[in-house]
Every structure is written in C-alpha cells, then in structure tokens.
Amino acid sequence: MQHRYYWILKWVAVATTLGMLLILLGGALVTKTDSGLGCGRNWPDCNGSLIPKEITTEVLIEFSHRFVTGAVSILVLILVFWTWRSLSHVKEVKFLGFLAIFFLVLQALIGAAQVLWGQGDFILALHFGISLISFAAVMLLAMIVFEVDQKFDADRVIIRRKLKWHTIGVTLYSYIVIYTGALVRHTGSSLTCPSWPFCYNDKPFSLPSKMYEWVHMGHRLAALLIFIWILYIMIHAFKHYKDQRVIYWGWIIAFILVALQIIAGMFIILTQLNLVVSLLHSLFITLLFGLLCYMILLVARSSYNENKR
Predict the structure, then answer these.
(1) DSSP state letters, 94-126
(2) pLDDT per residue over 37-48, tens digit each?
(3) Average pLDDT estimate for 238-267
(4) If we measure between CA atoms, which residue out of 200, 220, 303 comes closest to residue 266?
(5) pLDDT at position 44, please?
(6) CA gap 172, 169 in Å, rounded
C-alpha cells in the first residue's frame, strides 16, 4: 500500500471508530431522554417526511441518531472493503469486517422494529449489546490498521494458559454485566434502589422485595464481580507480563475503565440520573468491552505464535 494512501486509511479508521462511538452514545441518549418515538411510528422517514418539519427536542435527538447511524454506516463499509483489499494478509481482517457489517445491520433493524412495532424490555436490552459487538469489530479493524507500522509487540505476544482463560472468561462475563445494565435502563429500574452501595442503606442486609429491585441489585453485584475479576487479572499481568507492554498496559487500562464505570454508576444514583453522568457510564463500558475484545484477539494471536514455534 502506498504510504500516502495508508495515512488516509488511518484517518478513515479513526473517523469510523469515533462514529461508532457516537452511534452508541446517541442510542443511549435516545433511551435516557425517552426520545425513541420522537419521529413517531415512522421509519426510515420521520413523522411522515424525510426531513422533519416540526423540530422538538425528542425529534432532534431521534433524527440526529438516525442521521449519524446512516453516515457512519457508509464509513464502516468503506473501512471494511478497504481493509479487505489492502490488508487481506492479516488473518483477522475478513472476520472482523463481517462482524462489523452484520451487527451494524442487526442493531439498525432492531431499532427500526422498536419504532414500528415496539419491543419488550428484554429484547431492547440486547440492542446496546449488539451495537457493542459492531463497535468492537470496527475498533479492532482500526487497531490492525495502526499495527501495520509494527511499532509495538501486539503481533508477538505469548500469553500463558492461566491468563488466556481469565481473558476469555471475563470478556464473556462482561457481556452479561452489559446486558443487566441495559435491562436496568429499559425496565425503568435505575432509581428503584435510591441508595448506594446497598438498595437501602438503612437496611443494608435486607433482600430485594420487588422484581425491579432484583434487576437493579443484580446489576450492581455483577459489576462488583467484574471489578474484582479485572483487579485480579491486572495484578497477575503486573507480576508476570512486564516484558509484554501491550498485555501489561492493556490490563492496567482495563482496570482504570472498570473503576470509572463503578464510580459513574454510583454517581448516577447520587445525582438522580444526571444525563452527562449516565452517558459517561455508557462510554466507559463501551471502551472497556472494546479493550477486552482486543485482548481476546491477542489470545488468538498468542496461540498462533505458539504453534509456529
């Protein structure tokens, strides 16, 4: 690939990744502001016209989200086909490109179905998780584009069995945590438990008495467990992987992100669903999931490197 065109590809990769992040945060904003029907039961048009004639806050949020999704979808297609053409020698590229397109289309269809016919809370909770998979695939494609320079050791990692299984386990478990968080949001359970860290601090050891309290406290417990798990993995990487920078710093960053996630979750309760705090909560889990998926990619590369020995 000619040098000047490679730099263009880098810019496309960065723009597409940021665009996917905007899609995720835009979807969270639609949910948190109850703007899902800002365009009525109309899709892809908005209240019967391609460009909305009457602009309200809900219309602006919903229509902007649809517009950004459409624009970024074009960028995703450009990035996928460009990497397929120029970086086909990298074995992960075709699979990640397929994931990016497939889950981007799937999340758009679920969003459209919600507008046209409505969906149950348990189905809607999947929407954010499906969008995350598409984001992670695009993010990994972007990182592969930057790895071509070979300025760090991402293609030479050797991960031992213990860390491999912890990486796979915590990544799969993170999806459960994400689903429980989305379920809290879509069932309207965010303030069912008004205290933190317990549902009611004046009754710290009492069990939840309502379904929504179980949903909310189940998410808090799941978040606590992933915090402890990633802390353990970070300590393990700190002790045994100082010679592999991408592993060493990757797990330090993962711990910082999960800690920020916990803090944001606490402030959601303390600030009574402050919108900025809620969006930061979505941002941190998005970045954490993307990073964990990258660690899975490194696990696969490690197995490949071991087989070559």
Answers:
(1) HHHHHHHHHHHHHHHHHHHHHHHT---HHHHHH
(2) 788 888 888 887
(3) 95
(4) 220
(5) 80
(6) 5
Whether the Cβ atoms of residue 1 and residue 9 lie closer than 8 Å to each other: yes
**58 annotated active-site:** no
Predicted model pTM: 0.90
User: Per residue in 15-28, pLDDT tens?
Assistant: 999 999 999 998 88
DSSP the chain: --HHHHHHHHHHHHHHHHHHHHHHHHHHHHHHTT-TTTT-S-SSSBTTBSS-SS--HHHHHHHHHHHHHHHHHHHHHHHHHHHHHH-TTSTTHHHHHHHHHHHHHHHHHHHHHHHHT---HHHHHHHHHHHHHHHHHHHHHHHHHHHTT--SSTTS----HHHHHHHHHHHHHHHHHHHHHHHHHHTT-TTTS-SSSSSSTTSTTPPP-SHHHHHHHHHHHHHHHHHHHHHHHHHHHHHH-TT-HHHHHHHHHHHHHHHHHHHHHHHHHHTTS-HHHHHHHHHHHHHHHHHHHHHHHHHHHHHHHHHH-
Q: Is residue 281 part of an annotated ligand binding site?
A: yes
**Averaged pLDDT for residues 70-74:** 94
Exactly one of 58, 62, 92, 213 is catalytic; which is it?
62
Better-scored residue on pLDDT, 303 or 112: 112
Computed over every residue of the chain, the mean pLDDT equals 88
* Residue 240 assigned to a binding site: no
Q: What digits encode the pLDDT tens for the residues 203-220? A: 888 888 888 899 999 999
